């Protein structure tokens, strides 16, 4: 499966459970650990868990085997490692505190869906 296709599946799964402020960051030129980071917010611990669990379910349906996940127990910040795509789902306060978007500034960033050529 192409990375861009996996990004679309993840974004769709997040939108399905009403994630807020979904951002895709292309980090291929910044790090070798992953190609894309997707960051999204949930309004509560319960929603963060539901968002992360929905992403895991949808990618598994497509034959993707997640490398790992963390934070599903507390729901403050869930991290899903899908190898070439890393997903961060956080409560809004946690997201504002860690400000991953600023940390990765300079990487190509887009809101929502990817195009065939890359970020919109």
UniProtKB/TrEMBL annotation:
Domain of life: Bacteria
Compartment annotation: Cytoplasm
Short name of any one Pfam family annotated for the protein: RsfS
Keywords: Cytoplasm, Repressor, Translation regulation
Assembly notes: Interacts with ribosomal protein uL14 (rplN).
NCBIfam families listed in its UniProt record: rsfS_iojap_ybeB
Cross-referenced HAMAP family: Iojap_RsfS
Family from the record: Belongs to the Iojap/RsfS family.
Purpose of the protein: Functions as a ribosomal silencing factor. Interacts with ribosomal protein uL14 (rplN), blocking formation of intersubunit bridge B8. Prevents association of the 30S and 50S ribosomal subunits and the formation of functional ribosomes, thus repressing translation.
Name of this chain's protein: Ribosomal silencing factor RsfS
